[in-house]
Amino acid sequence: MIFVGVDWAEAHHDVCVLDEAGPVLARRRIADGLEGVRQLHALLADHAEDPGQVVVGIETDRGLLVGALVAAGYQLYAINPLAASRYRERHVTSRAKSDPGDAKVLADLVRTDRHNHRPVAGDSDLSSALKVLARLQQNLIWSRQRLVNQLRSSLREFYPAALAAFGTELAHPIALGVLEAAPTPAIGRTLSLSKLAAILHRAGRERNVEATAVEIQAQLRAPQLATTPLVDAAYGKSVAATVRILREFNAQLGSVETELAPTFEKHPDAEIYRSLPGLGVVLGARVLSEFGDDRTRYAHPKARKNYAGTSPITKASGTRHVVLARLARNRRLADACHQWAFCSLTGSAGARRYYRTLRLRGKTHHQALRALANRLVGILHGCLEHRQPYSEQVAWPSSVTAAA
């Protein structure tokens, strides 16, 4: 066996190769790209006859380099950068740090401690493609929300009537339509009921159009403090530009979600995920893609819960015993599981009973949702392990709620 540490960077990667006893067999800096991978394979071939004899440690679990290492048949471990940093401190008290030194740290880590780390999962191409689309959809939502926050900040400065009319729904087509037609307070006060009704119809509103138009008009015409006309016009241009970008965000989100659905439905695990309460197409795709579909990745339900960040951690020393939320986690998956727990309250009587029991015990809303998410992740693990869809009776026996 040989043990390889790869300290990756954008332009180049530092490689260190150790034998089983620990001495350095080779060091090299390779270029990023096809030529660098060729150099790496040639270097490792000088010291190992079979790809299965090569164990690699690297601080990422995705990218072209990782894909090439997995395809070569090497045993690959994605080491959390924080774990690598702590391991370095075990051996270097001077706090010295360099890229070649980090490569040796990673090689040493997989040589001695790889049993404490998880190999890179062998997810299917379909699961990997689904992760790309699901993360794109989530990134678009996060980017849109940042832009909405900027728009809200601008409106607060010169157009509080628009905030009163639309509140937090500034990315809604109705709000965008009105702000596009009236980006300044002066123009907003001139909008007629017929113009507002036409905007509502274009935005897809079918019920209570007249009443909604009257309400929006009243808010836009309400007295408010005003800036000078020149500043007002400048803010109006800023609002108009932001509205156009938000419209494009909405269009791209719709396009991505349209592509996400058929990709998710093609996956053999989609039926099991969709059977669980609270998981629709988009949320189910996010949960599936972040967990992956490698059957050997999670040895038991607790491993899956730890990865999702739903299981608590305990700090105990002497008479002190504290239970805290887990911070080291997959942030995207933790966000999806929290939303999943909230959505399950309307789709599962057992989930509602579990949540209410926790609330009666004094848990906060978020603590109860986190505990519910932890329970749901365990249920999901059982469904996937036994290849069975969700069953309310099996998932929520009366003893579970009583013990909560």
Give your account of this protein's structure.
The strands form 2 sheets. This protein has a 5-stranded mixed β-sheet with strand order 3-2-1-4-5. The protein has a two-stranded antiparallel ribbon with strand order 6-7. The chain has helices at residues 34-45, 64-71, 81-91, 99-112, 125-158, 160-166, 173-181, 185-188, 193-202, 209-220, 229-266, 270-275, 281-291, 301-308, 331-344, 349-360, 365-386, 392-395, 398-403, and strands at residues 2-8, 12-18, 24-31, 54-58, 75-78, 313-317, 320-324. The chain is of the alpha/beta class. The chain is built from 19 helices and 7 strands. The model has no long low-confidence stretch (mean pLDDT 91). It folds into 3 domains: 2-116, ATPase, nucleotide binding domain (Nucleotidyltransferase, domain 5, 2-Layer Sandwich), CATH 3.30.420; 129-261; 270-403, no CATH class.
**Biggest pleated sheet:** 5 strands, mixed
What is the residue-averaged pLDDT? 91
Radius of gyration: 27 Å
Structural class determined from secondary elements: alpha/beta
Count the beta strands.
7
Order of helices and strands: EEEHEHEHHHHHHHHHHHHEEHHHHH
> How far apart are the first and last residues' alpha carbons, in Å?
48 Å
Strand content: 5-15%
* Overall helicity: 55-70%
Q: What is the general shape?
A: globular
Number of helical segments with 4 or more residues: 19
Q: In which order are the strands of the major sheet placed? A: 3-2-1-4-5
Which spans have pLDDT < 50 for at least 5 consecutive residues? none
Whole-number tally of structural domains: 3
Protein topology:
Elements: E1 2-8, E2 12-18, E3 24-31, H1 34-45, E4 54-58, H2 64-71, E5 75-78, H3 81-91, H4 99-112, H5 125-158, H6 160-166, H7 173-181, H8 185-188, H9 193-202, H10 209-220, H11 229-266, H12 270-275, H13 281-291, H14 301-308, E6 313-317, E7 320-324, H15 331-344, H16 349-360, H17 365-386, H18 392-395, H19 398-403
Parallel strand pairs: 1-4, 4-5
Antiparallel strand pairs: 1-2, 2-3, 6-7
Helix pairs in contact: 5-6, 5-11, 5-13, 6-10, 7-9, 7-11, 9-10, 11-13, 13-15, 14-17, 15-17, 16-17
